[in-house]
Structures are given as C-alpha cells and as structure tokens.
Design a protein that fits this description.
With 164 residues, this protein is mainly α. It has 2 domains: 71 residues, lambda repressor-like DNA-binding domains (434 Repressor (Amino-terminal Domain), Orthogonal Bundle); 63 residues. Helix content is 57%, strand content 6%. The chain has 6 helices and 4 strands, in the order αααααββαββ. The strands form 2 sheets. Strands 1-2 form a two-stranded antiparallel sheet. A two-stranded parallel sheet has the order 3-4. It is rod-shaped, with a radius of gyration of 35 Å. The mean pLDDT is 88. Bound molecules: zinc ion.
Length: 164
C-alpha cells in the first residue's frame, strides 16, 4: 500500500466514523463530490490546504499529519527537510535561493564541459596543422612558404628560401 492509498483509507475511515457520504463531506468542506470521491479512492491527492480543511471538518487530525508527512522531503541543494506545498508535490528545493544555487551549479558544469570540448578541438586542430605542415616540407621540419595560409598557426620554424 502506498502512502497515498493509506491516506485515502484514513479518509474513508474518518468518513465512516462520522457517517458522512461524499456529498455530505463535499458540502461541509466546500469541495465537489467528485473531488472527494477521487481522494477517497486514492486517484488523486488533495493539496495540503485541502487536506487541512478535510482534517478540520472531519475532526481527524491524522489526515493533515499524514498529508504533511507525505509532502516532507529533503532539499536537493542544502539537504534540509522541508514541506513541499506545491500542488504537484514535486518540489526539489526548500526555497528559491536553493533553486538558484542548483541552477548556478548546473550552469557551471555545462561551462566546464564546453571548455573541455574546446580544448580537445584545439588540440586536434594543432595536430592537423602539424601533420599538414610536415607533409608540405622537405622532411627537415622547416617551413619555406611565407604566403602559406597556415603560416600563422604552423608549429614549424620558418626559413626564407635562399635565392640560390
Ligand atoms: Zn535548501
């Protein structure tokens, strides 16, 4: 049984104890009967606010306590335990500062990766230039072509061709 199913069972128990139908509870809580039905059958979890209202009108504190326990999680950035009041219940951070901290960390990771890729490409480029220059020399590791477009990046020493 999941926590959600246990919560729904607790709601059903509270309603039985009070002798209230979905319609009656809906009226007391200011919600729709289909909503109550969905909560009761664990098809949907009420928000914290709604759980508090249901807990209140049914005089069943356990409904709120269990719902709060389900919404309590550890912040993905600082590790502190917090109550996720979001309707989707998928909040990962205790506050906006922690959300920002995480975003900055992700951005930094991405920047580091980009730098590694750039460095790798630069090395590759240097290797290609060296290989090309080696191909066009007489095997003595000396460049003699001043107008070569690779001159600026060539690793080879340049020696002007003698007029002889
Ligand atoms: Zn945090």
């Amino acid at each position: 049984m999941t926590a959600g199913q246990r919560w729904a069972a607790e709601l059903a128990r509270a309603m039985r104890r009070r002798g209230w139908s979905n319609v009656r509870l809906a009226r007391e809580a200011g919600m729709s009967a289909p909503s109550i039905s969905a909560y009761r059958t664990a098809r949907q979890m009420p928000t914290l606010t709604r759980a508090a209202i249901l807990s209140d009108v049914l005089m069943w504190p356990d409904l709120l306590e269990r719902r709060v326990a389900m919404a309590t999680r550890d912040c993905a950035a600082c590790g502190r335990s917090f109550i996720d009041a979001g309707t989707k219940g998928n909040g990962r951070f205790c506050d906006s500062a922690c959300r920002w901290t995480n975003r900055t960390r992700l951005a930094r990771g991405k920047r580091d990766t980009m730098r590694q890729v750039t460095t790798r490409r630069l090395h590759l480029f240097e290797e290609r230039v060296a290989a090309m220059c080696a191909d066009y020399t007489l095997g003595d590791g000396v460049c003699r072509t001043e107008e070569c477009p690779l001159r600026a990046v060539s690793p080879l020493r340049f020696v002007r061709m003698s007029a002889a």
